[in-house]
Amino acid sequence: MDAITAISLASNIFSFIWDKWRKFESELLAQNVKRRAAKFAIPPAPDKSTPPQNDQNPPSFEPAMSRDCSSDSTGCQRSDEIRDLRIHLGDLLRQLSQQGTKVDIDAIMAQLAIGSEKGARFSAEQAILSCLCFDTMDYRYITVTKAHEGIFTWIHEPASFSASPGSGSFFECLESPGAVYWVSGKLGSGKSTLMKCLCELPAVWERLMHWVPATCQKGEQLQLVFASFFFWNVGLEVAELVQAIQNIFDHTKTQPTIKLCFFIDGLDGSASSRPWNEFEKAFGGNVLQQLWVQDLTRDDIKLFVRDTLEKDRNFQELKEDDESCIDLIQEISNRANGVFLWVRLIVNSLLQGVTNADSVVDLRRRLDTFPTDLYEVFERELFSVDPFYRQRTARFFQVTLTSLELLPLVCYWFVD
């Protein structure tokens, strides 16, 4: 091959790779901006299931295990590789274009072939990622309530799991090759919130790095792949997706240098308060590889109730007049049975009472008359709507459930 042909080939390779990557960088930036904007733009839903939030503590994107950070890290790494390749191809192009300079055409062509192969691989990667990406991919993850500050600290301490005879240490299992750990619990006990917390916990990545060397064989260079997904639409049967996932797992068996860790939330989600029998049979046999959330969150519930009530100005004034209101914290914890969602609802009810200048006796009556069963709570709320407005309310609920983002109030004006 002569120098002119080599120059033309190098130029084409350079232009192809650079154009492809510039397009990908723009798409990556747009996706990250959209995702991060969604995290700021979607405030806690203004209903009784959402605890008060501290406006002075905005969402953080710093944890090493956060989904956005891992996405950015991968994109930045690939961007650096593309830029290095661009510089290298540019140098080769200049060598070929310098008149009177003796160059080794074969050596340069070999390097161009390597560059072409890298460019094709990068392009294939982006084609695959584009096929896998969809608009609502992070919808459930974004809407899961962020953990209250200070809770779930027991996840780090193996001794804490002694409070739940049916649970095993999470981090000990995380370092075990091939282990499956099942996070289970009552409806509304905070399973998804715990899963989101674990996905953003730097200690998880640190423990996984301990796990990978333990599986090394002499001379192997292992690659750790961490991924998470939060299911949110219960009841869909997607046979093609299930088969595709199975094919991926079958393929990974032929790649011994790739170590996978998946955090998947919502697989066993159902309207029932009991886990599916399929999950009980598959994962319930080994107490060291499962966790019952409601057995370990008693102190977390007390912390949440205390922090939420005591930071309310009206409750502080009530406490100065009648210190017996503090006893409500322990009573709520005793009645919660590990169901965090119930705790949020009753705390919001008590805060409403405090705002209405209820006495401690009134607050205690609120607590005593509040149903302990979530279904009874929801039923009471739904049937408290005037029958005349129930059809319209149901329509509003349906619009809210099917929307992909928080709708402005004016949208509901047009629903009628």
UniProtKB/TrEMBL annotation:
Residues 50-59 have a biased composition (Polar residues). It comes from the Eukaryota. SUPFAM superfamilies: P-loop containing nucleoside triphosphate hydrolases. Residues 42-77 are annotated as: Disordered. This is NACHT domain-containing protein. It comes from Lasiosphaeria miniovina.
